[in-house]
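Q: Here's a chain of 125 amino acids. Please give me its 3D structure as C-alpha cells.
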Amino acid sequence: MKIISPRNHGYLDFLTVVIFLLAPTLLGLSEIPAMLAYGLAAVHLAVTLVSGFPFSAIKLIPFTLQGWIERIVGPVLVAIPFILGFSDESLARNFYIAVGIIIIVVGLLTDYRGENRSYFAGKEE
C-alpha cells in the first residue's frame, strides 16, 4: 500500500538532509561516520532538488529513478558500519542502521508514480 505521496516524500527528504547534517554533532560521531553523514546530506539534497516531484528545483531525473536510488541506499546504509569498520561505535552503527531501515520503509510506502514529472527528454513521465 503506497500511502506516502510525492509531496510528503519531499518533506521527508528535506528532513533526512537535516538529520544527516545534525547527526555528527548531536551524536558525537567520529571522523568517518561524521564525514559520511555530511556527504550523504549533500548528495541527498542534490538528488531531492533535481527529482521530478513537487519540491524539486529542476526536474532533471524522474521521481521513479529517485525511488531506485533509495532502494539501493537503504540497504547500503544498514551495511555501511560493517563495511567501513565503525560497527564497534554503537551510536554511529545504530544511527546508520536505523536511517537505512527508515529509508527502506519509506521507499516501500511511497507512491513513486504519483505526480511524477520530469523534463528529462522534454516530456512528462
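Q: Can you summarize the key feature?
A: The chain has one domain: 6-114.
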